[in-house]
Amino acid sequence: MSRAYRYGAWDGGADPLAPPYDVRAAVDAIGRDVMQGRSLQEALRDLLRNGLEDERGRREGLDALRERVRRRREQLRSSGDLAGSLQQAREKLEQALTTERAALDQKAAEAAERESAGEEGAGADASEAALAHAQLDALPRRTAAAVRELADYEWTSPAAQQTYEELLDDLRQQALRAQIPGLGQMGQQGEGGQGQSGQSMEGVKELLGDLNALLAAHERGEDTTEQFAEFMAKHGDAFPEDPKDVDELLDALAQRAAAMQRLMRSLSKEERSQLQQLMAQAMADAGLEAEVSALNQHLQDLRPGAFVRGRGRESFNGSQPLGMDDATGALAELADLDDLDDQLAMDGPGQGLDDVDVEAVERQLGTGAANQLRRLAELERELKKQGWLTGPASQLQLSPKALRRLGQTALRRVFADLESSRRGSHDERSAGAAGEATGTWREWQFGDEQPLDAVATVRRAVMRSAATRSPSSSAQQRGVRLLPEDFAVAETERRSSAAVALCVDLSWSMYAEDRWAPMKQTAMALAHLVATQHPNDAFEIIGFDRTARTMSTAELAAVEPAWIQGTNLQHALALARRHVSRHPDAQPIVLVVTDGEPTAHLDDDGEAWFDWPTSPETLRRTVGEVDAMTRSRVAINTFLLGEDPGLRRFADAMARRNGGRVFAPSLDRLGEYVVSDYLRARNGSSGSRRAS
Question: Using CB atoms within 10 A of its CB, is residue 311 exposed (0-12), middle (13-18) or buried (19+)?
């Protein structure tokens, strides 16, 4: 049965043929931090904060986004003067008074001319002008009080009266737009001091009335779905946020109201008092005071938390006067940036990238920043999706896959160090009586003495020939031509197994002296080497501080430094002796990495005892474990970190008593020393072996 297939352009979404997201660099970065003693959660948080280097060598993480937020905040703070509304009102008042005084002076001069000409009524006009002058001179110095007293003043100059009414109208518009930005120019004064239209001011009153009715119904718990739809159909243009329901509408209104409150807190007491009085005068003049007061009350009842939003008084240092609407807009944006900064800091317990508002990032910092945040979120998701991290967010752990990569990376570094000092010294896969084929092969290199893998060699030649042969020559060519790059050698390894106990010091001094990461990396490298190349070996990690305990590679990777005093080598050796005794037919290998002499031991009741300097009892019990190892013909090879003379004396004495060896490698060569010693010991070329 035939099938028909149709092909077309990809219609978007995730590309099913795209290669998987490469997070190996992120895993390595997390691994380095974990090796240094940081928790996995801290390492992941630092990775997200710092980001990974892109192709241009730049790091774009959460800290870079926070820096952009900081710069935007500083830009806002330097954008103008928050008291601009008051300054603008003062300037308009001075303009109106100057114009009015000029008109009064002209009136008085004209009255004097008419009076000298004997015209009746001229004296009364001169008196009226003088009285008006005196009234203006007696106005309070405070702008708000002066504006209030001028409410009933009979203006001589129509231009002065228009300027005064524009002052009130500007304040009214700014106050309305500060709460409902989309009101625009509704209610604006026109020429001659008249309103632009009676309908426009009535439209503002109608909007506020409908809005208060909607919020009152919502506050009573009524179903306002239809009422909200009707309201938005009628007044939706006034709300650029385009809310989808009453709650979103409330959030937008409360955010602006909180910004207005923040503006008032940011002004001086005198400025705040004057601006409040001016706003009240402007609203009362238009008959809007009751509706605006009702709206504020609804917002306080329905969104009380919004009015404590923000960080108190803000200091703006710009010279450009900001109107009330511009000032509240800037403060609302500043509050938005403050919230965004808190989200990007991820300082709260359990806080992650899912808690960051991507829309706020795009709104404040642009599409590029939002995409950057999405890439970081994708990185975090892919670490879990691809199996590098396991467990819930509060209990993340490195997966076995991640632990293998950490061990592989550490071992690769160790082998690179070995190669630089003596080529091939780490490789014990030589052929001979003790060698056994592993079933694997590798490319032949000059100087190899291993036997050729004939099957793999021929297969490589055939594959190469098929890839390079032209169609015309395929039928005529016969046989297989071998080239040097086709040769493969069979890998062999020794069949004998080993019982390996790696004892690592976990005392605080290891962390304090920057020995923690080299110790962990060495243990992970050795664990990976055993697991991948010598799986028949019985490997055990024993960590010790005041007490000792066996540890998996996952537990060792996750262990964090703790302020615990004590180096209980006696307990560690006891656990190591128990481990090798369980494998009587295996080569025993006991390796100890430490930076301090024994200062703790277990009493007969199993309780840990610590004393510094080393007590005779601790020394006696530790030497007892060394002697037990010696009687079992198990050598203890010790790797000393640091320059502690007491540790050096103890290690030398232990080596003479036990027959093991003592090494004092630098931190950067610890892994090389430990891995090399393990390989030599498992092949019987160093250390003591249990008698048969």
Answer: exposed
How many other β-carbons are positioned within 10 Å of the β-carbon of residue 70?
Answer: 12
Q: How far apart are CA 433 and CA 83, in angstroms?
A: 93
What is the sign of the dihedral through the CA atoms of 298, 299, 300 and 302? Answer: positive
Q: Are 557 and 523 in contact, with CB atoms under 8 Å apart?
A: no
Averages of pLDDT over runs of 10 residues in the chain (692 residues) are 61 49 73 71 77 66 83 78 71 85 82 72 74 82 78 85 81 73 53 42 83 89 90 85 86 79 71 71 74 83 67 62 67 75 74 76 82 80 76 72 76 70 42 49 68 82 73 57 82 69 90 86 87 86 91 84 85 92 89 89 85 86 90 90 85 88 86 86 55 30
- Is residue 589 classed as helix, strand or coil in its secondary structure? strand
pTM of the model: 0.56
Q: In angstroms, rounded to a whole number, what is the distance separating the alpha carbons of residues 28 and 46?
A: 13
> Which residue from 49, 65, 12 is spatially nearest to 366, judged by alpha carbons?
65
Nearest to 69 by CA among 310, 266, 343, 328: 343
Residue keyed to tokens 């080529």: 423
> Alpha-carbon distance 590 to 681, whole Å?
9
Alpha helix ranges (H) inside 36-121: 40-50, 62-77, 84-116
Nearest to 501 by CA among 404, 603, 587: 587
Backbone angles phi, psi at 100, to 5 degrees: -65, -40
What are the distances in angstroms from CA 646 to CA 181, 424, 653? 77, 36, 11
Query: How far is Cα 511 from Cα 563, in angstroms, rounded to an integer?
Result: 10
* pLDDT at residue 4, as a whole number: 65
3-state secondary structure of 489: strand
Output the six-digit token pair for 469: 């042969």
SS3 content of the chain, % helix, strand, coil (to 5): 60, 10, 30
- Asked whether the beta carbons of 692 and 441 are under 8 A apart, the reply is no
